Structures are given as C-alpha cells and as structure tokens.
Amino acid sequence: MTSSVVFEPRHQQQAYRRLLQAMSRPGSVQTLPGTSAWLCVLATLCDATVSLADIHERLGAADWPFLQARRANPAQADFVLADGALEPPAGLAPRLGILASPETGATVVLICPSVGDKGLLLELSGPGIESTARLRLAVAQQWLARREQWNAAFPLGVDFIIADESRLVGLPRTTKVKVIED
C-alpha cells in the first residue's frame, strides 16, 4: 500500500477547514489544490467508527484500509459515495435519520466532472446564504430531484458534499436548490 497525500494529517486538517466553510456557506466553491477532492473528503471524515457505501465502486482496494470505514449498504451507511454524472440507482434510499436524532441522516458524497464552472445552473437559498447564490454543477439532474425527496420531511434528510478533482461544495439539507437552466 502506498499512502497518498490525502491521507496525511496535515492535509486532512486543511481539508476539514474547507469542508466547514463549504457547509456553512452553501454554494461557496472550496479548492483543495493538488488532490482528489472527493477522496480527500472521505479521508478527512472517515475512520473506524463510521460506515461507507461506495455504490459505483469508485474506491480502489488500496483506499479502504486507509479510510478505515466499515462497508455498508446505502440504507445503513453514514456516508454514501456515488458518481454524480450517473443517474442515482433505482431504489436508492440513504439513511434519513429519525426525529429524535435527525443528525444521523447520511452524508452523500457525489463525485462530479466539474464543480463551479460547467453543468446545471442552480440557484441556492437558505441558511448561510445572504439572499440567493448561483452555482454550476456537472451532476445528473436526477440527484437534485432525489435530494429534494429525501429532504422533504425536514429535519430528516441527507447532506450533500459534491466534489471534483480539486474543488468541493456543500449542500446541507437546509439549502433550497432550484435548477435555472440545464
């Protein structure tokens, strides 16, 4: 096994700061230079206490020991990794939490070809956004429709982190997303 820079604590600390900024300021594009941003997100958030579903099998065999996360199906996983350029699988139902503990809803990490400059034009509103914000994401529009369904019974739902090779953006369940053009 060879360790990538994303598994180094110094790099994970920087990534964590960027993740906090992305989730507290939805739609703000954060850069993680010289890394695979989606893998860096997982390396920063995963450890032996969490579970992960890799529904499109994007992780290599060598990544799993470094992540330390337990493999799980999407309905039980803390984190769900998926290819955002592909449509969500039929019947995909990540964990939405329960009323007594809505924070136990899953975090969906979507890998996409481009964050911030190509793809769907979105208008975002909600906590952390002054009035509205615009964002371009190269994701299959069906992910946004599913996100809306999963978050319909707020406070239950899922949070999204969308990342490409060097950038990421956060879409907490409180963020309203409207597609302006595709």
CATH homologous superfamily name?
Bacterial phosphonate metabolism protein PhnH
Q: What is the rounded distance between the termini?
A: 41 Å
| E-strand count | 10
The number of distinct structural domains comes to 1
Question: What are the segments in which pLDDT stays under 50 over at least 5 consecutive residues?
Answer: none
Instruction: Summarize the main sheet.
Output: 7 strands, mixed
Q: Please, could you describe this protein's structure?
A:
- With 182 residues, the chain is an alpha/beta fold.
- The protein has one domain (4-181): Rossmann fold (3-Layer(aba) Sandwich).
- It has helices spanning 9-24, 37-45, 63-67, 141-150; strands at residues 30-31, 51-54, 70-71, 79-83, 107-111, 115-125, 133-137, 159-163, 167-171, 176-181.
- The strands form two sheets. A seven-stranded mixed sheet has the order 1-9-8-5-4-2-3.
- The longest helix has 16 residues, at 9-24.
- The radius of gyration is 15 Å and the shape is globular.
- The mean pLDDT is 93.
